[in-house]
Specification:
The chain is an alpha+beta fold. It has helices at about 15-45, 50-65, 75-100, 215-235, 240-270, 275-290, 295-315, 335, 345-350, 350-365, 415-445, and strands at about 1-10, 120-125, 130, 135-140, 140-145, 155-165, 170-180, 190-195, 200-205, 210, 325-330, 370, 400, 415. A hairpin with a 3-residue loop joins strand 8 (about 190-195) and strand 9 (about 200-205). The radius of gyration is 26 Å and the shape is globular. The relative contact order is 0.10. It binds zinc ion (ZN). Zinc ion binds near residues 382, 385, 401, 403 and 406.
C-alpha cells in the first residue's frame, strides 16, 4: 500500500541559520501578501482572476530589478506561497458555492494578509531535499542539524516536500514522504464504539478504562492568565514586552504539545491493539533480565531503546486483535462551541483533531471507521432496551433506565459508557452489513 505521510521534528539551527530561516519565512509572507494585493487589484479592474503562474512570472521579473533579495532564497519559497494562496481562494469559492446550495458555514474564510506580529510563519521547499540520520539538506539553506536522530526515514521513501515553521522560538521541519507500507493484516476483533467527552477524552465499549483527558489548557490557565496580564501591562515596543510576549507564546506551545501528545496516544491505542498493562510489564521484565546489566547512562539508554523496539514489534504482531469496525459520534463541534460555558472545555479536548487522526490511522490499519448520525441519541438511549430519556441534561452523569421490562431497570450506568455501548451496536450492524456484502460477492463468483 502506498501512503503519503508527514514526519515533523525539531531543527537545531545555528544562529546564522536561524536568521536565514526567518528571512525565508519573510519572503513567503511577502509573496503571499503581494499575490493577494495583486489578485484584489486585478479583480477590481478587470473582473478576472490572476493565476499563481502569472504572479510568479511577475515576481521573477521583479527579482532582477527592484527586489534583488529574492535571489538570496530558493525560488520554491515564493512559488509555493503563491500556490497556497490559490488554494486558499479555491477553498473560499468552494465554501461560497456550498453556502449558495444551502450549507451553513461559520465564515467563508476570505484570504487575509499575513502579519509578522502574528508569528514568523512557515515556508515550503521542494526538491532537492536530502535527509540524513542527524541532519537535513535543503535547497539554498545547506545542511541543518536535527534534534531527534533517525526519525525521518532516509531510505526506501520518496521525499516530496519539506515545510519549515517556527513556534515560540523553536524551528521545526515537516517532511512529506511517499512510502510503501505492508498491506494491513485483516482485523478480527469485535466492533468497537467510542464515545468522546469532556470529563474523559474517550470511553470505549470494550470495558477498558476510560482514556483520560489531560485538560492541558485548564491546568495552565492560571499561569497563562498571569503571563497575559503582565504582557498587557508592558510598555509597547519595549524589550520587556518582547520578553513577556515570548513567555505567553511558550506557554501556548506547551499546552498545544501536551494536548497533541495525549490525542496521538489515545487514537493509536484505539486503532492499534496494544498489549495490556500486565502483558507489557511481564514482557518488559523478561526482556531486561535477558539483556546484560546496564551500569552507565549510555548503556541504560541503549537497553531502553532495544526494549522499546521489541515492545513495538509485539504490538504489530497483535494486529489481528484490532477492532474490525470503529464507530464514532459525528459531533457538531462548531455548534457546541456556541455554548459559552462549554466552549473552552470543548476546545481544550481537540475533538476535531481526534477525528482527523482516527480517519487516517484506521485507514492505515485496515479498519472500517463509521460515524453515527449527528442526531443519533447515543447518550439518551438505554443500550439494553432502547428506552429514551427525553429530558436528559448534560449534567446528568448517571443514566437510569425507567423501563420496568428492561434487565437494567433502575441500574445506574455511567453516561459515557452507555453511549459507547450504543455506538458499538451501530458498529455491529455495519460489521454484519459488510459481511453480507462480502458473502454476496463470494456467491456471485
Ligand atoms: Zn433499558
Amino acid at each position: 500500500m502506498k501512503i503519503t505521510r508527514g514526519y515533523k521534528t525539531e531543527l537545531d539551527p545555528t544562529v546564522k541559520q536561524q536568521i536565514l530561516l526567518s528571512q525565508c519565512a519573510g519572503v513567503a509572507r511577502y509573496a503571499y501578501n503581494y499575490g493577494l494585493a495583486r489578485k484584489k487589484e486585478v479583480y477590481a479592474t478587470t473582473g478576472k482572476r490572476i493565476s499563481a503562474i502569472d504572479l510568479q512570472k511577475e515576481l521573477t521579473a521583479h527579482k532582477h530589478t527592484d527586489l534583488p533579495w529574492l535571489k538570496k532564497v530558493s525560488k520554491w519559497i515564493y512559488q509555493n506561497a503563491l500556490r497556497d494562496l490559490d488554494q486558499a481562494f479555491d477553498s473560499f469559492f468552494r465554501r461560497l458555492g456550498e453556502r449558495k446550495a444551502g450549507k451553513k458555514h461559520q465564515s467563508l474564510g476570505f484570504p487575509t494578509f499575513k502579519k509578522k506580529s502574528e508569528g514568523i510563519g512557515s515556508f515550503r521547499l521542494d526538491k532537492p531535499i536530502y535527509v540524513f540520520e542527524d541532519s537535513i539538506q535543503l535547497p539554498k539553506l545547506g545542511t541543518i542539524r536535527l534534534k531527534e536522530h533517525s526519525y525521518i526515514p532516509t531510505s526506501e521513501v520518496k521525499v516530496l516536500s519539506a515545510t519549515i515553521s517556527e513556534r515560540a522560538g523553536r524551528w521545526y521541519v515537516a517532511v512529506l514522504v511517499e512510502e510503501h507500507v505492508p498491506e494491513p493484516v485483516s482485523a478480527l476483533r469485535a466492533p468497537l464504539g467510542v464515545d468522546l467527552g469532556i470529563t474523559s477524552l474517550a470511553v470505549c465499549s470494550d470495558g477498558r478504562p476510560p482514556i483520560k483527558s489531560p485538560k492541558a489548557l485548564n491546568a495552565s490557565l492560571k499561569c497563562l492568565k498571569r503571563a497575559q496580564r503582565h504582557l498587557s501591562r508592558c510598555k509597547k515596543g519595549s524589550n520587556n514586552r518582547e520578553k513577556a510576549r515570548h513567555r505567553v507564546a511558550k506557554l501556548h506551545a506547551r499546552i498545544a504539545n501536551i494536548r497533541e501528545d495525549a490525542l496521538h496516544k489515545a487514537t493509536s491505542s484505539i486503532a492499534h491493539a496494544p498489549l495490556t498493562k500486565e502483558e507489557r510489564s511481564t514482557l518488559q521484565t523478561s526482556l531486561t533480565s535477558l539483556l546484560p546489566e546496564a551500569k552507565t547512562k549510555p548503556e541504560q539508554k541503549k537497553v531502553k531503546k532495544q526494549v522499546k523496539k521489541v515492545l513495538h514489534r509485539a504490538t504489530e504482531a497483535n494486529a489481528p486483535r484490532r477492532p474490525q469496525v470503529i464507530c464514532l459520534e459525528d459531533l457538531n463541534v462548531e455548534g457546541m462551541k456556541h455554548n459559552r460555558k462549554l466552549a473552552r472545555a470543548i476546545s481544550d479536548v481537540g475533538m476535531g483533531e481526534f477525528r482527523r487522526q482516527m480517519k487516517y490511522k484506521s485507514a492505515w490499519n485496515g479498519e472500517h471507521l463509521i460515524f453515527a448520525d449527528r442526531f443519533f441519541p447515543s447518550s439518551k438511549q438505554c443500550h439494553a432496551c432502547g428506552w429514551k430519556w427525553e429530558d436528559m441534561q448534560l449534567s446528568d452523569r448517571i443514566f437510569l433506565c425507567q423501563n420496568p421490562a428492561c434487565s437494567l431497570h433502575q441500574v445506574p450506568q455511567d453516561r459515557d459508557s452507555n453511549a459507547s455501548q450504543n455506538l458499538e451496536k451501530l458498529a455491529k450492524e455495519e460489521s454484519s452489513a459488510l459481511k453480507n456484502i462480502v458473502n454476496g460477492e463470494l456467491h456471485r463468483t
